[in-house]
Amino acid sequence: MTDKTIIGGLTLVGSLSAYYYAKANGKDRYPLMLIAGFFGAFIGDQIVEHRKSLVKKRPKHKRITF
Questions:
Q1: Looking at the domain assignment, is residue 45 inside a domain?
Q2: Residue 11 and residue 37 in contact, taking contact as beta carbons nearer than 8 Å
Q3: Cα separation, 66 vs 63, whole angstroms
Q4: Residue 45's domain spans which residues?
Q5: What are 3-41's pLDDT values in tens digits?
Q6: Which end of the chain is more exposed for a tag (fewer CB within 10 A), N or C?
């Protein structure tokens, strides 16, 4: 998965979950969707940064030559 896919997917999940929460409880949907989408994007960005740091820590394989 690419970085944009992870961030966009979590933004979508956050927005949709806030939409259904607000709809079920009779609250105003749009502010909750904006806030939840922001948090989803923030969490997605943190996950991407964590994955990048794990890749940097991984030891490189040495080539075996004969």
A1: yes
A2: yes
A3: 10
A4: 3-57
A5: 899 999 999 999 999 999 999 999 999 999 999 999 999
A6: C
Residues whose CB falls within 8 Å of the CB of residue 22, separated by 6 or more in sequence, listed in order: 28, 29, 32, 33
Q: Which residues, at least 6 apart from 43, have a Cβ–Cβ distance to it below 8 Å? A: 10, 14
Instruction: Report the Cα–Cα distance between both ends of the chain, in Å, rounded.
Output: 36
Query: How many structural domains is the chain composed of?
Result: 1
The answer, as to whether pTM is greater than 0.85, is no
Whole-angstrom distance, CA of residue 31 vs CA of residue 27: 10
Alpha carbon distance 23, 33 (integer Å): 11
Structural domain contains residue 62: no
Spatial contact of 18 and 36, defined as CB atoms under 8 Å apart: yes
